[in-house]
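Morning!

This is the sequence you dropped in the shared folder:
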Amino acid sequence: MTLGRRLVAEGLGTAFLLAIVVGSGIMGEHLAAGNIAIALLANAVATGAGLAAIILMFGAVSGAHFNPVVTLSEAWQGNLPARQVLPYIIIQIAGAFAGVAAAHLMFGEPIFSASAHVRNGLAQWWSEFVATFGLVAVIISCSRSRPTVTPFAVALYITAAYWFTSSTSFANPAVTLARAASNTFAGVRPFDVPGFIIAQLLGAAAATMTFSWLYPPAISSEEPGARLR
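The structure's back. Tokens below.
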């Protein structure tokens, strides 16, 4: 697969992801009549379902990263040439902003508007560390043991993480940057973005080290416990 095709897949996939996240957030808020729990439920279910679909759609082309920390983790593991990391990240960020714009246009919102949604403090940063650690852990463990279930495992994890983290699990620097340009239910105040991204990078690094050790590539095709017998 040529690099050009992979980049187009990453850009389109990330755009779809943000259109799903932001669009379902707007729709959920409109329909929930002030009930934040119902709005979050709608947002979480739509994101999980959409994420499974787009991973299945683009996984065979680009690996379906849609996330700079996933790209960095894959490069760290030797699964992606280092020279392709920057193009992947640039197209992911561009796609993320395109997805926000698409969602805003569908609901008659300004194409971009700085978010006023405050997401700050130690609890939020720790949530982003945990959310991103878990995401990368799911990707590495499933891709090295049962790769066919990876799209569904990732989608289920993100759906759950919307609810068990106080930050509602951004777990993605491109998503975080783009959601700062959305003054909607899914937004994050631009001032709060650096703390989120630092926590995400640290969580991804910790997960890559831990789960690359737990699931060495040499035993990825063996059944669990094969080397213990």
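Headline: The chain has a mean pLDDT of 94.

More detail when I'm at my desk.
O.
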